[in-house]
Amino acid sequence: MLKLGSSSTLKRLKNRYRLVVMNDDTYEEMVTFKLSRLSVYVMLSTVFVLLVGLTVALIVFTPLKYYIPGASTDYKSATELRQLKYQVDEANKQILLLQQFDNGLRNGPLKGNNTVALDTTMLKVPKTEISND
Question: What's the rounded Cα separation, in Å, for the pair 17 and 44?
Fold first, then answer.
């Protein structure tokens, strides 16, 4: 069994390879690159970090952040939006109460409909005794 140590892994990362791009018709070498596995890893990692950094910068420093759902970065505007929602709800409640009041006046005793039942419940008022001290 072959045992891999840290020195053999480091050697494999540092081994040099040649990448040649050739013209298929004429077998002419167009471009030649001398690479190692370590340089390829470093290059790909750098490209990845740059792309992530550019994407984050694009979102943070442009108005694109407003198109991300749930990413409300402005606390003041969120608070104002919440207060406006409460005011609209209160206005809707007031409108419903005014409509009920209006319907009551239109269908009430002013129109001639005396269909309102009168409260004729007898009240039992206790008599208080007056003391002559």
Answer: 17
Q: What is the DSSP string of 45-99?
A: HHHHHHHHHHHHHHHHHSGGGGGSTT----HHHHHHHHHHHHHHHHHHHHHHHHH
Distance CA 12, CA 63 (A): 47
How does pLDDT run across 32-75, given as a tens digit for each residue?
Answer: 999 999 999 999 999 999 999 999 999 989 888 878 877 765 66
Please tell me the number of Cα atoms within 13 Å of 84 on its side-chain side: 6
Question: Is the whole-model pTM more than 0.70?
Answer: no
Say how many residues make up the chain. Answer: 133
Q: Rounded to an integer, what distance in angstroms lies between the CA atom of residue 2 and that of residue 13?
A: 18
